[in-house]
Amino acid sequence: MGDIGIALDLGTSGFRGQAVELPADGSEGRVIATAITARHPLPGANVMDHLHFAIQMGLELSQRVVIHTVNQVIEQLDVPREAITRLAICGNPIQLSLFEGIEIRDLAYAGKTRQETLGYEPPKREAKALPARDIPNLDIPSEAKVYIPPAVRHEIGADALAMMIKADILERDEIALVTDYGTNAEMALKIGQEIFIGDILTGSAAAGPALEGQTIAGGMLAAPGAISDVVYEGDAFRLYILNDEMKNRPGNLVDLATGEVLEEGELKAKGITGTGTIALVHEAMKAGLIRLPEILTPDRTLHLGGKLVFSETDLAEAGKAIGAVRAGHITLASEAGIHPDDIGAAYMAGASGTYVDALKVHWLGMTPSSVANVYQIGNTSLALAQDVVREPQRIWELEEIAQSLRAAHCMFAESETFKKVYVLELSYWTEGMPWEMYQQFLKTYGLPQLDVNQHQPQVTKMVERDIADFGYRGLQVVSEIGSILNVCFDGCTGCRVCVYECPEDALRLVNRGPRGDRWFDIEIQSADCLGLGCLRCQTTCPENVFHWTESLAAWSSLDQAAFPDPSEGEEVVYKE
Q: Would strands 248-254 and 145-148 be described as parallel, antiparallel, or unpaired?
């Protein structure tokens, strides 16, 4: 085997990597293998959680956790380390900054005055080609080159640039919208000079992890065994499951009200991913099993067979994510001075944007109602990283594009339009606000009415799956990522309330003391922990001795080259 390149997509919900042959003759070599993680290694469910963690616990520690997981992905690709000569990455500005270990506070605190008060200088996020030795603990040859693509502005990252380039909207005359249907729902609106001062308006809706199948009971990322679609069939519902090649295959035919399996399918479901969640909400609403915000079954639950269920709490989480996307689209159009009906084409990027039924997305309002064409374009971030690892000179072409783009970024957190519309979305999804009242509020706010007489757009699926080519060795899932921290709290009685209350099963209790002299450690799995956005362990501790930030400060003492495996105690008490 000759030289090898590694392409990485550092996503908010997980990492994806590919090993690629780099033939000496310059021809396009084959993809060798693909590896994906089941989650992000840092505590939390979105970029703000990751950013908060990095600020609270330190950039050095956060970088070590990220690089540790990157090394796990590369190891899973099972290629000779000494043959790796290039590594190219793509992702949002926060993920790339954590990988590189550069200043991140400018991404957390807006405004020059705030930055000057804190006394730091925002870094230049331009195209870079670094020797691997400049990235601490990165386990590839030190002389290998690491390629980091540029950001257009500090808010508009390489992932947004990737979806714009791969959707080819920069070359189009029509008004077009591209959205990555993931945790952060990055979106870019190509509008043209005659309408707005810039050609591109971008935003990030922070839709939340429900679009990736997380914070949903039985939720999981897009991986083999995940329910990725639900179709009404007769008087029941057919589940569609991703197989080992990440293709949809028929699963069981179930009665959602009872969970009764009416017909066995080819595959059994392990969980439900974001696309399956969207499909389930769509089908159940159309079948009359959901009347927002309620599930109209005897136990107010949808049953997917076995222990897999979908509750009204899950419905609310899904509604928040769906509503955030629509609110983002309305806000971008408003900021651009156009009506949402002026948008002619919508591009759907990311894993969720690939596997989801685009017509169901459209019916739920996650694409503008009047678009004539919808294109599903796959994982654009990983695709761009693969382009760069094959042709390193492209990194400088991307820099030229980034410099030439006259783009503006809309901070939804500061946008009055977004705040107003998102409150309406929350009222619609979680409180059952009638659609007519929603429209009336839009009119009161001076915003355009939304088309209720939707037509069906023409859907073009440009890729069969989000990663077009897994390679001749296929796909591997890295399930055990992140690190495990053992902490001991003075005054802990071993009551296990924190273990029981953890919504992600990220904790376990270990008795470290000899017989008759009980004292306890809490083990925290970083990748499963929801971090500072949750803190249920801390708030429910009856002795008030669990202090999350203090416990994670202990990570700074961990060995920099590796993270420990769970240690054995005399007695391990798991969540019952």
A: unpaired
Q: How far, rounded to the nearest angstrom, does the alpha carbon of residue 512 sit from its chain's CA centroid?
A: 37
Helix (H) or strand (E) holding 47: helix 47-57
**CB contact at 8 A, 462 and 166:** no
**Separation CA 496–CA 511 (nearest Å):** 11
Quickly tell me which residue has 């619609």 as its tokens: 428
Between helix 158-167 and helix 394-404 the angle, nearest 10°, is 90
Structure tokens at 388: 């760069």
Residue ranges, comma separated, of all CATH 3.30.420.480 domains in the chain are 4-155+472-478
pTM confidence score:
0.82
| Tokens 């997981």 sit on residue | 69
Q: Where in the chain is the domain with CATH 3.30.70?
A: 484-573
In the CATH hierarchy, which fold is given to the domain comprising 4-155+472-478? Nucleotidyltransferase; domain 5 (3.30.420)
Q: Name the fold adopted by 484-573.
A: Alpha-Beta Plaits (3.30.70)
* Spatial CA neighbour of 352 closest among 282, 280, 276, 285: 276
Q: Which pairing describes strands 84-91 and 31-37: parallel, antiparallel, or unpaired?
A: unpaired
* pLDDT tens per residue across span 188-220: 998 864 433 357 888 888 777 777 776 788 888
What is the signed CA dihedral for 330, 334, 339, 341, rounded to 10 degrees? -20
